[in-house]
Specification:
203 residues, alpha/beta, Rossmann fold, 5 strands, transferase activity
């Protein structure tokens, strides 16, 4: 049986409107080889309406009744990511991992264990909340509360999405364009073997 070299898996983790999708698009267009995009937006397109937003559920424990299903959705998505890698295809994943559910779900360590033994680069996509708010207003025409405060779900995203903060690389989309972030990621792929997901496995 011929050996197939596993494809790279790049996981872009950050809040909504942090710029993950734009970076993923550049990676697909410019990186060498076949790059599949398997992430939160693609996966949510498959989720029935009654289980929305599925894996896009924001922190705050708003829908505890669907949280067990969300755990299985993440498990299925990451098993698909692993299958693509094992067949030699590269995968870019844009996602917002958090554990701000009604009870701790341990989804990130579970996903890390699913990808055990595969080449995974875990990238934190950061962006100051002031820029996030500007992008939310531009995209969805929703921004600050009536009294001028940041909505609680947006604040929770900013607090929880980068916990525990174990990454192989971090990029800031307020300082670098999507193309520049992709080039930073490209250079990191040429460096030492990434270890973040291996460290997260045992959490």
């Amino acid at each position: 049986m011929n050996f197939i070299k596993p494809g790279w898996i790049i996981i872009l983790n950050g809040t909504p409107r942090s710029g993950k999708s734009s970076i993923a698009a550049v990676i697909q267009k410019t990186f060498e080889g076949v790059w599949m995009n398997i992430g939160v937006d693609r996966y949510m397109e498959m989720i029935p309406d009654r289980y929305q937003p599925g894996i896009g559920l924001r922190p705050g424990g708003e829908h505890p009744e669907i949280e067990p299903i969300i755990v299985n959705m993440y498990k299925a998505m990451y098993q698909s990511i692993a299958a693509h890698s094992r067949l030699g295809m590269n995968v870019v994943v844009d996602v917002g991992h958090h554990d701000g559910y009604s009870v701790p779900r341990g989804i990130l360590p579970m996903c890390a264990r699913i990808l055990k033994g595969l080449p995974v680069l875990f990238v934190g996509v950061r962006c100051p909340i002031e820029i996030i708010m500007k992008r939310r207003i531009a995209t969805w025409q929703t921004g600050y509360t009536n009294d001028g405060n940041i909505p609680k779900p947006v604040s929770l995203w900013q607090q929880l999405v980068h916990q525990p903060g174990i990454y192989d690389l971090e990029v800031d989309t307020s300082m670098n364009s999507a193309g520049e972030c992709a080039n930073i990621i490209r250079r990191r792929l040429e460096g030492p073997s990434p270890t973040a997901f291996h460290r997260i496995e045992s959490m």
